Amino acid sequence: MNRKTPRTPPTLFKVAWRYLLSHPLQSALMLLGIALGVAVAVSVDIANASASRAFDLSVEAVTGRSTHYISAGPSGIPEETYVALRRAGLEIPMAPILTQLISSPDLWGIPLQLLGIDPFAEEPFRSYLFSDEVQVDLQQIGAFYSVPGAVLISTDLAERYGVSAGEPIAMRISGRSQTGFIAGLIEPRDSLSRRALENLVLADISTVQELSGRPGVLERIDLILPQEGEGAAIAQLQDLLPAGAEILPAEGRSQAAEQITAAFRTNLTALSLLGLVVGLFLIYNTMTFSVVQRRQVFGTLRALGVTGREIFILVLGEALLVGLVGSLLGLGLGVVMGRGAVDQVAQTINDVFFTLTVREVSLPVSSLLKGALLGLGASFLAALVPAWEAAKSPPRRILSRSHLELISAKVLGRAAFVGGFMALVSGILLATVELSLTASFAGTFGVTIGLALTTPWLTQRLMPLAARLLGRLIGPLGRLAPREVAASASRTSPALAALMVAVAVTIGASLMIGSFRGSVITWLDQILSNDIYGSVAGASLAEPAVPIDAEIIEQVRNWPGLDTLHLLRNIEVDSPYGPITISANDNPNDGNEQLYLEKQGTGTEVWRAVQTGAVIISEPLANRLGLRMGDSISLYTPQGEHSFPIVGVFRDYTSSRGNVSMWLGVYRQLWGDQAVTAFSAGVRAGEDVDAIVTGMRQELSQTQFLNIRSNAGLRAETLEVFDRTFLITYALQIITTGVAFVGVLSAMLALQLEKQRQMGILKAIGLLQSQLWALTLLETGLIGAVAGLLALPTGYIVAEILLQLINKRSFGWSLQMQLQAAPFIQAVLIAVGAALLAGLYPAYRASRRSAADAMRFD
Amino acid sequence: MRCALIEMRRPILWIPLLLILAGGLAAVLFLRPAEMDERLAAQVLVTPAAMEGFTRADGLRPLSFPSDFGPHPDYRTEWWYYTGNLDTEDGRHFGYELTFFRVALLPPDLAIPRENNWATNQIFMAHFALTDVEAKEFHAFQRYARGAAGLAGAQTDPYLVWLEDWKVEQVSENEFRLHAANEGLSVDLQLVDDKGPVLHGDGGYSQKGPEAGNASYYYSQTRLLTDGSIQVGDESFAVSGLSWKDHEYSTAVLSAGQVGWDWFAIQLDDGYELMLYQIRREDGSADLFSSGSLIGSDGSTRHLAREEFTIESTGIWHSPHSDADYPMGWLINIPGENLQLTLTPYLVDQELNVTTIYWEGAVQVTGMHDGQTVGGSGYVELTGYAEAFNGDF
């Protein structure tokens, strides 16, 4: 006797291999399920990583190695401050910076960052400007300093857009057309420099001051302060700074910006993991079925002396093989899908958060590794139970089919209990404890999966009811189908659960988006009280507001047919909490045109307080900074830090960073800034709004490109951006449903294969081909209907969690649930439709077989 | 012409430097030669060979002071050059160098008038070096800035040349204040001009080479009585001694074939000053234009032609930084003046490892003048040893 540890004989694996090969459709479905799940996770991960990387590069390109920077708010720092610091001999590396977003028709009109620098001050800061190959051309350098409009771009950029040094380049800056020329090309030193220089246009400070119309002004002064003696250096600098100039850590700026999109990216990741969860059910489903289908094989093997352990390894090995191949497929698919997702994510970030000027798709190895591990891990986990079941059953009993169903029935009850408990605990945690965003998502998963686990058990409870109902409606077939569904729980439950999860999430997301959209519409109706809106056409939607020429404002003021004109100054200012957006307007009625969450007194009273120096803040800001009505908020003004009492918190969906709304007169007094970034005008009764809008568009855009929109136009545009933002959500939802569909299909197929003999008998006792079709479709339809029905409450719960918890935690705004019938109806239709579709092929196969043939199967 | 070459010493050294500095992005932005559109070419293209548009040093122009202390922006290059040997009361010796270079990027008629404060046609570079003989330490620093926005520049009335906080400013008619500081080292000096400007060449005009217009305007203040303080880390030293100032501006100077340069500026304690230089050609020979000048205690200047003096090097120093071999220690003999001098570096390692590597250091001088023992100090500049300076123009 061989006393050594028994080794699984290689021939045994042939059993597995043969099985997979001889059931190509089933293997393919299994692969597809894993591949889709992995692909979704990988693509979203790639999109997130690319966005994050792009963001880092944007920041690195502009921030460089600075540790701190000096800022004096929106009006900038007088250049004399910089010169005075330089002449004080502080020996602190410092670099003057002036940036401007531009777009160029010669460079495809994409947003570009025009970075104004003093090259002599740059070396310690922005490494990408430096090349090891020193080949300086005197003339071009001369041009860089002395010729107006001289800019430098990277050789890559020049190549990509087919422009070359010496050529003039058209630029759009703050809505104005300007002409510059390419004084030279920068050859990036390495790939890091190459990416940092993507979509970056370099120019001398003088050039940027001229092009952006900000003579004498710097945006900030970058600093590298020593780690030791940082405090002393700050004190030294502070003595030389004018009032209103602050020394701020560079980190704060990039961190704040990083955090802005963090929630957005977490949301995407969660959504992408959902695809994998659905895939997990699918793998479990398929593996279970493959075990059931081969019970005889395993029984025989056991009878031949193969140990349970070996069977366990066999089934698990099979799952891992499928998992591996599926994951590899998924990686490939994920990379392809990732490219599309990157555009979507970048577009959303540009629309909603800030202008991302780097758009390269990065393909991090970590994303691929994560994807592969997820796929393998999921396959392994999903196969554990079936493998264990296959292994532990004694040879004699494994041969009997009824045994498995019996266990299944017991397991269903247990699963339902565990699931229900899990959902309950997750729900209670979500409702009572302040969880982090990731934990909240974990809780959401807990609720969803928990409820999914109860689905099969509930289905079994529901089926007798369905049998009675359908029996009355369509006779024996109507009774037969539900009983079949209930009886074949071992195969149908995972598919059912998967479908339920997918559909529930569809309902949840649709309800959330619908409610969100509804909230935005209500809010738009409230705040868009004027007829015409105008602002400068920026390089991208998230571009910081650009001032409108004073002459244009004068023109609007004298425009015939208008009876009111309100001005708005939107600007990002520094504060102890980081950059904060101010909206200052001169609409005396604005106090009554807001949706308040809380306010001191009536809208009119609130606004009276605002006119004398108080502010109201938006909900996301209140949540982010933990501020409430009655508190006060500090902002840096040119005169130093200033504290504003908060007299109200209003709803606002313009920014997840939030903003502070104040009276224009107060802003102008404190910041000494007369600029206007937007106007709204009311049209006298009887005048044609559209005609005025058209007239303004023609007349006002002579010197500066303005976006002039009617009330309706602005509304439509806002909603368009809103919809664009959720495009990727829809895409992920569809894929998740796709995974579920594959699950139902494979389950149905398995079920029909399993029941060939039964079908034969039914055929033999006189069932017509059409009746067999009906029976099959009835069964799958039932599964779909049950999944859909059970998804209704689950979806509702998911929507509530998304609205009340996830959104608030992610973006700071709370949303009101607005129940609509459409998402529910849609969901049931999707579920039934998917199930019916999945039943078509099995039904076709079942009806084609002759009775004798089918019966011989067993 | 004999005088012609005096002016060449610094141009030869500095043109490569200035070229790079002119880069601004100096070692920095790598720019590919552009294909220029013709319209822009007129504005932008000034080939180094063609100096058209810049004012040329092409004849006698009487220098007048104080107006010529200031900048001459229509000439392509210009520098203000201060060196000095200083002692504490108990004899601790220091040498210092503070130099400001200016280069114009475009000729005046091609420069586009712009109102912007930062827009500029002038770039400045400065070097600050300190030799601490007792500590056997030598420190050198380099800075760049544009000649605009107040970051760097030069002005006439009152005379001021500066780059950030490094500066030399006029305090009264013959009195100047010099300040430079970097990394815990600083010099704060009061300079009093004892002799007034000494014009080199023909009344300050000196032909540089055979080509017409290859010349510069050049004068020195050879005896600046110096008092002040030097700070080294936490230690402050009251010092006094002598400084030397050169000021020169030109547009085109160099001829091809010259690789480097040995230059000597010596202040003797009998009231004389001596300047000599020797250009080395590519083939190793001394250029014909090597020459010098001797300034008497009464301020009179005598030109020294190539054949009127000999310079003999007494040793070699191998630089561990650049691997260059410099001559080190010299015997100077001017038979016509009955002057024999021995020059010994206060410190051998006075090599400036800046954009362009060169050796510029304080030296101790002993010797005989007219049969009398004479002592003194001076500065020696050695260029083209670490890398050849091929005169591109």
Q: What ranges of chain B have pLDDT less than 50 throughout 5 or more consecutive residues?
A: 1-50
Total beta strands of chain B: 25
Q: Helical proportion of chain B?
A: under 10%
Structural class of chain B: mainly beta
Oligomer: heterodimer
Major β-sheet of chain B, in short?
13 strands, antiparallel
- Count of alpha/pi helices of chain B: 2
> Biggest interface in this structure?
A-B, 55 and 53 residues
Report how far the terminal alpha carbons of chain A are from each other. 37 Å
Number of strands of chain A: 21
SSE string of chain B, helices as H and strands as E: HHEEEEEEEEEEEEEEEEEEEEEEEEE
Total helical elements of chain A:
29
**CA(first)-CA(last) distance of chain B:** 19 Å
Précis, in short:
The complex is a heterodimer of chains A (about 850) and B (about 400). With about 850 residues, chain A is an alpha+beta fold. Chain A is about 60% helix and about 15% strand.
Topology, pairings included?
The complex is a heterodimer of chains A (about 850) and B (about 400).
Chain A lengths: L9 H13 L1 H40 L4 E4 L5 E2 H9 L6 E10 L7 E7 L1 H4 L15 H9 L3 E5 H7 L6 E6 L2 E11 L4 H6 L3 E5 H7 L5 E2 L1 E4 L6 H11 L5 E4 H44 L1 H9 L4 H46 L11 H28 L2 H4 L2 H32 L4 H38 L1 H12 L1 H39 L4 E5 L13 H8 L4 E12 L6 E6 L10 E4 L3 H9 L3 E4 H7 L6 E6 L2 E11 L8 E5 H8 L6 E6 L5 H12 L5 E5 H15 L1 H28 L1 H9 L4 H43 L9 H28 L2 H6 L2
Parallel strand pairs in A: 4-8, 5-7, 14-19, 16-18
Antiparallel strand pairs in A: 1-10, 1-11, 2-9, 3-4, 3-6, 3-10, 5-8, 6-7, 12-20, 12-21, 13-14, 13-20, 15-18, 16-19, 17-18
Helix pairs in contact in A: 1-12, 2-10, 2-12, 2-13, 2-25, 10-12, 10-13, 10-16, 10-18, 10-25, 10-27, 12-13, 15-16, 16-17, 16-18, 16-27, 17-27, 18-25, 18-27, 18-28, 25-28, 27-28
Chain B lengths: L8 H15 L14 H7 L32 E12 L4 E12 L17 E11 L4 E10 L5 E4 L4 E4 L2 E7 L2 E8 L2 E9 L4 E2 L5 E3 L7 E18 L2 E16 L7 E11 L4 E9 L9 E5 L5 E4 L5 E4 L2 E3 L6 E3 L2 E5 L4 E7 L5 E3 L3 E13 L2 E12 L10
Antiparallel strand pairs in B: 1-2, 1-13, 2-3, 3-4, 5-6, 6-7, 7-8, 8-9, 9-12, 10-12, 11-12, 12-13, 14-15, 14-25, 15-16, 16-17, 18-21, 19-20, 21-22, 22-24, 23-24, 24-25
